[in-house]
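TODO from last week: model EAL domain-containing protein.
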Amino acid sequence: MSIGQGRLSQFGHSLVANTVAFLRGGSPDKSEAVRRAEVVAVRPVVRGFSLGVGSYYILITVAHLFYEKGLALWVLDGLAALTMVACFFFFHHTRNTQRLEPLELTCLTLFSLMYLNVVTYQYFHVEPAKLVYFVLMILVFSTAGITPRVVVPCAVVCLVTMYGLAHKYGILSQYIWIGLAGVATALGMSVLLRQAILRAVHARVQADTLRDEAQALANCDVLTGLPNRRRFFDEMSHTLSMQKQDGVEFDLALIDLDGFKPVNDIYGHSVGDALLVAVAGRLRTLCAGRGFVARLGGDEFAIILTGVADDEALKGFGAHLCDVLKEPYMLSGVAANISASVGFVRSTGPFLTTSQYLERADYALYYAKQNLRGAPVIFSQKHETEMRDFGLIDQTLRSSDLERELFILFQPQYDVVENRTIGFEALARWNSPKLGLVRPDIFIRAAERSGLISQITLLLLRKALADVKSWPQDMRVSFNLSTRDLRSTTSIADICQTVRESGLDPKRIEFEITETAMLSDFEQACEALNRLKAMGCRIALDDFGSGYSSFSYIHRLPVNKIKIDRSFVVQLLKHQTAQKIIKTIIDLCKNLHLDCVIEGVETETELNKLRQVGARYIQGFLFSKPLTADGVDEYLSMEARQSQTGQHDTTGLFMARSVVS
């Protein structure tokens, strides 16, 4: 069979299939969502048809007054007026119809009235030339009829009537082919129109499904099933409104797990994730009917409590909470023991904002971890005074030689399609002579609280860009910006100046922002990012999925890249939903022409799962741990050697690069 014959045969099969589907009225097992969407799609067709026919019969009613007499006037004018009234009645009556059957009934009623008008006219005025009106009605019915149950019977009745009258007038031979041509045209128009409507309906349902998935992603923590950070902020806004309007009192608790990191490091992320799920389950049970529980990220949880009478009752609840979370966990044969510290802040004082409540609860939690680990602490006036003193980290930062103590490590971002590294993320590190190696999240938060972050950002950026100069020209560096960096026009101006002074092409520099940093002052953040983008720098949205995860603001940000948080990756082998969500985000990025980097990939199994959903850019320990500047040079040299020898085995790369790390 030739190619042309094959295509013709394929077209014929498609036409037959579409025609059969049309005559059957579509798939009988359509989902309720598809049915609702179909009603929404065809309702304007029916209402538009009603309005058009009603307007037409206004003219016909008036015309009959001039051209008809006697009984013909009364019958034809009355029938035309009835048709007109029915059209406008159904136009109004179907405006909010949610079911298909009333729309079908509307079409059948109006078609019947139009048919009666034409037949009655022929009864009073035998005009063989106007039998063609029946063919016109068939064409009109085929375009306005929304289902085969409407189109087919109306078309058959019109065709039979036309043939009957033509036979009576002795001109049947003249109208046989006209009728057949009209029916064939009508069937084709109906098939094409219905297929177009169904395609639009399915596209809309698919878009709604993606939107629902995105909404679920935006409000729910994928690992624990608890509300996530975005949902927590929404609930806090509602709670504060209730406080101001009705005087409703509440208590905010921040919970941090003590001993979680050793469990995670010793037994692996799978056990660590199972532990977080178990903790979430205990919190959900403990707070059932008493409060709102959310996971803010990592091993940090929040509770909004209502109905607690006094400080003693709140301490009692906190102590019970700590006892519940302290009970041993049996996780896949592993016995894990942790504790929890809790920081409370009460709403009995002056009205505060969400961020102010969080700041105070966070300080109470910090105090508990530093002084009463595994116990609850209620924020007090004493803590208010201490908080103004910034704390130990802030004091150490201010007295340190930051130029000497702060340094940068780099972690590769790998393209699994082209089998090459495309860039590195710059990671801030602080080795304090007094405190030792301080966790980045701790000293960055302290620096933000103290106002030192702008100074630290510029210092680290200069160091990172100096190291990048020795890299290949096609290699980019990603650098994280903080909330204060985005909110300060001076800081952004200094960052721009630092980029210009570095001599690097701005296209090689990518600034990463978190959802929290961006949403603290959205408009200012957009302005700051646009300034960086105008220089030629790239913008990445970091840790997507661990916090707000809202799709509603992505189109308003000048981002080039989205980084999916590891919390999704760790669920790939356990829940198929995680794989679907990752695919949804990847597809969204493709549609928006954004790069998508998957963070925290540590195993070949995870990588293979990600390949199946179209992931391309990967970052994680599978390829390399964070490297020093010298380690980057050795890393790139090793990659170049392997590229020359044609070796692109992922396991081989990891083994070789682990030595460099």
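Done. The chain is about 60% helix and 15% strand.
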